[in-house]
Amino acid sequence: MKQRTPFGSFPVAASVATFLLAACVLPASAEMGAAEITIDIALPSASTHTSPDGVLAVRIFTPAAPAQARYAAGAPVVIRVPGGTTSGSLDPQLIGAADMIRIVFLFPGGIDLSEGRSSDGTYDYRGIDCITALRDVALYAAGTLTDSSGSTIDDVVPVTVLHDNIGFFGSSNGGNICVVAADLHGTDLDGYLRYIVQWESPVSSQMAVVDLGPFPTLCPSAEHLNVASENPWYDPAGYTPLNVSVDYGAVAGDTTVFAPQVFLDGNGDGIYTTAPVDSYPGCRTPDLDGDGALGPAEDIPLSAFDDGVLSYYSRDATRAMPDSAIFASWPSTIADVPATDSWWNLREAVRHYAGAVSSIPGIKGMVLASVEDHVQIASDKPHIRQAFDGWFDAAGWVKINPGRSYVVAENPALASRTDLPDNTENTPPADWGDATSYAYPDSFDAPENAGAHTHLWDGTDDDGRAAAAGVYLLQVSADGRRATRKMMLVR
Ligand SMILES: [Ca+2]
Ligand SMILES: [Ca+2]
After folding, report:
1. 296 and 250, same structural domain?
2. Which residues contact 269 (CB under 8 A, 6 or more apart)?
3. Residues 377 and 332 in one domain
4. Inside any domain, residue 466
5. Does residue 123 belong to any structural domain of this protein?
6. Ligand nearest to the CA of 299
7. Prediction pTM value
8. Residue 131 CA to ligand 1 centre (angstroms)
9. Residue 24 maps to which CATH number?
10. Please, which residues have CB within 8 angstroms of residue 418's CB and are 6 or more apart in sequence?
């Protein structure tokens, strides 16, 4: 699959989201590092379309003994769905929540090469089969489905499973399918699925393909430089819970190149216009004047999800394409408006909150947000707002980030911090443009005195997974000044 979005490859601060995840699922009394065991099972699922007994590869991380479970009554279950458009991996996740049962799995057709395991079927890029697979994993956690040996989860884990305390944790784009599954299979999941956590999830098509910025440069190999700029055609005043206002009037395209095939032709010359990046030979940037921002006279590259057959741009960008000359004869590799709508109908959370809330009365939503998002750059955070509004407008329970007291209880060293917003559930922020009023800071490190300091990055991303080899940016702030340096991760 060609991937034209920056998901999964973004250099990120390693600590913040990991902390938020732990804070979100850990009780104050949790013992970090409690012993756990790993159990692999194969789960028969119709989502594989493999007769007679197609299975999903599922891995369970569980407390090793009842005393290590979160509650005296047993252990709740959280099912973790990865971001990007990957078919999943079996790596450990939410490692701070060792007192819970944590489940990871591979979507139909998914392969984990490092583990030598795979799920039967064909990967449909978070489509209907993946949605069904997530349902079946949840129903296994609920004790209503059995593995390929005929065993329930209760038969294989050494703790009592709290079947009525199951949560989905959607990392970034994984937060979309969690809500879609809760809507489409809510009748089956009601009574089991209690909450969904969405970590900075891009819940509408424009957010998923990052139409608002930042924007990639064209670089050889695995270098990932981005122009950290908002889309100059984005108008925050045009926000709606389903889409945002971007003027795509300058849309143009060229399907003879790899990327970008679609762009906003700011300088109007009919081609995607770039300049060389002095510090990176071979890289080219649309930031022609090198001021670090993209203006209306510069080109804006648009990204798409891609299933190997078609590229799916945002609903709004796609609707603008027929007005562009190159789409007079619609390219065979780009999804048209009906195909685009059909694709996003199953991949945007924004269209499924109401159904999830009505199907599963009492389900709760938590939206994790830090001041500096791991991908999105728009300062009014419309993706966080859409996620919040999705739950809120459906009269569901929703909160941005765990409460201050919860976080401080987890880490008492944070008690002195004055920059941890204590949001009230079911209450929107007074000003979405003031992220520090509702989002967590990007660092929980204490300020340091003047002098030389040493810090170690363990080479993992916000999900605790090994980051890809390549160039990463290191940022240091002091006295209101900020310096950025490049560093190379070699594996
Ligand atoms: Ca141009
Ligand atoms: Ca510029």
Report:
1. yes
2. none
3. no
4. no
5. yes
6. 1
7. 0.86
8. 39
9. 3.40.50.1820
10. none
